[in-house]
Design brief:
Distance between the termini: 41 Å
Number of helices: 20
Bound molecules: S-adenosylmethionine
CATH class of the largest domain: Alpha Beta
CATH architecture of the largest domain: Alpha-Beta Barrel
Structural class: alpha/beta
Strand content: 5-15%
Length: 464
């Protein structure tokens, strides 16, 4: 039996949302000042910040979000790409292009096709993937997913290798989560889609995915199965975003209480046009201004949790919201099965939903470097056992900087050597010259310098 099946108290959230309407500007100022000291936000404070009307206060919200991101994560941005392996799906989610009532030829990749996709991803410089699949216990069972993981980890093209696979597959059993853990996945990602139960049930009609409670308790099962890095998310656009953000915080606290650690990351996907759905039918679509508030308020509420931003958003919007607390972005993505191979052949790619940032990783890296970020392909944490509460302790003490800073630089140099052009190399050299002196401990600085020299000489044995 599941314990505590529905720990998202809807009446409590409604009352917080109602009470927040009377918040004064001076109370908002106090909340912002508290958030600046990395203390996080209470549920009522989250609700209150969504009531900001004063433009100066909104500016202050964004500045604090930016400051928190810089002081905890530094200027690093982790880069990854999704890999869709199967679009078989037994569900009928009203918002999704993969819903079973959409008639198209379903496919799942063979081992060879997975290897072809992985080689193309490695050619783009990727080291970290998010494995994606529709839900189909027959056509895409756990054994298929495990084989896919094995195919990905064992595919090496030139200097390329996938060093971390995060997995975004449907909610499953403790036994299956144990298998995923043994297959050495990074983070297990699952979006609740919406925490609002009536909405959840109406957008998942006659679906295996239709049980709100089973879905909501998936992370308990994942953690019982030994996975300690879980990545949450809400599909913004289904229900009231203020309700969703408060509920996300409640879910995070629930996991902290029951399993000792909350979300490793939070994703902020926004509803996009997809085959067989009409955006106009969704009454809670989130506009750009609300989207910026969501990212910034999440950053203030849980300063130590990563925030993931996908290519659903335009380059312009990505450039802006990255400042408000994003720590990971996808790049060069295809959101369809076999999409990278199709793109290589110059074919049109029909995605699970519409994407808005079509730049290559190289272009994205250049623009990040111009904005003075350090794009990172580091995947060392989970391979060195820095997961779950061990990661959080390092993040909260600030010591994570000592590890992430040098690793980000090393993997950036590695990328530049293997996949960069002259322009990128010049940008990277400037960044390395700027960043090395910032690395605090002398021994780590030396290690970084030595590692970079090794990479330059084509040696990689110091890589972790
Ligand atoms: N089948 C798995 C599950 O049920 O969780 C994996 C989900 S799917 C491959 C990845 C995510 O795409 C979904 O969780 C959903 O949030 C998102 N998605 C589906 N339709 C979308 C749309 N129209 N716009 C934006 N994101 C969408």
């Amino acid at each position: 039996m599941e314990k505590n099946l529905n720990f998202i108290d809807h009446e409590y959230i409604y009352s917080l949302m109602n009470n927040s309407k009377n918040i004064t500007e001076s109370e908002i100022d106090n909340i912002l000042d508290k958030a600046a000291s990395k203390k996080g936000l209470s549920h009522s404070e989250v609700a209150a910040l969504f009531q900001i009307k004063n433009e100066n206060q909104r500016k202050k919200l964004f500045e604090i979000a930016h400051m928190l991101k810089e002081s905890i994560y530094g200027n690093r941005i982790v880069v990854f790409a999704p890999l869709y392996v199967s679009n078989f799906c037994v569900n009928n989610c009203t918002y999704c292009g993969y819903k079973r009532e959409n008639e198209f030829e379903r496919k799942k990749l063979t081992r060879e096709e997975i290897q072809t996709e992985v080689k193309l991803l490695e050619k783009m410089g990727h080291k970290r993937l998010a494995l994606e699949a529709g839900e189909d216990p027959i056509n895409c069972n756990i054994d298929y997913i495990l084989e896919a993981i094995d195919a990905i980890y064992s595919t090496k093209f030139e200097n390329g290798a996938i060093r971390r696979i995060n997995v975004n597959i449907a909610a499953t059993t403790v036994e299956n989560y144990k298998k995923l853990k043994n297959a050495q996945i990074g983070t297990y990602i699952l979006f609740q889609e919406t925490y609002h139960k009536p909405t959840y049930e109406s957008v998942h009609p006659k679906c295996l995915k239709g049980s709100y409670e089973y879905h909501l308790n998936a992370f308990n099962r994942a953690m019982d199965g030994g996975i300690d890095d879980v990545g949450a998310g809400v599909l913004f656009g289904l229900a009231d975003p203020i309700f969703e953000v408060i509920a996300l915080m409640m879910h995070n606290e629930y996991l902290e209480k029951t399993h000792g650690v909350g979300f490793h990351t939070i994703s902020v996907p926004r509803l996009k046009k997809a085959e067989g759905m009409c955006l106009e039918k969704f009454p809670h679509l989130v506009d750009d201004e609300m989207f910026k508030n969501i990212v910034a308020i999440i950053r203030l509420a849980v300063p130590f949790t990563g925030i993931i931003l996908s290519t659903r958003e335009t380059p312009e919007l990505r450039k802006e919201v990255i400042k408000y607390g994003v720590s990971q972005i996808s790049a060069g993505s295809s959101a369809d099965v076999g999409g990278y191979s199709e793109r290589e052949k110059g074919h049109h790619i029909p995605n699970q939903f519409e994407l808005a940032d079509h730049r290559t990783p190289l272009e994205i890296l250049k623009s990040l470097l111009d904005e003075e970020y350090v794009p990172s392909y580091c995947t060392a944490c989970y391979r060195m056992g820095r997961t779950g509460d061990r990661f959080m302790e390092l993040a909260k003490s600030g010591n994570i900087q000592n590890v992430c800073g040098p690793n980000a630089l090393m993997t950036l140099m590695e990328y530049a050597m293997d996949y960069g052009d002259k322009d990128l190399l010049e940008k990277v050299e400037k960044v390395v010259a700027r960043e090395i002196p910032k690395i605090k401990r002398e021994d780590i600085r030396e290690l970084t310098k030595n590692n970079i020299l090794k990479i330059k000489n084509g040696q990689r044995d110091l890589f972790i």
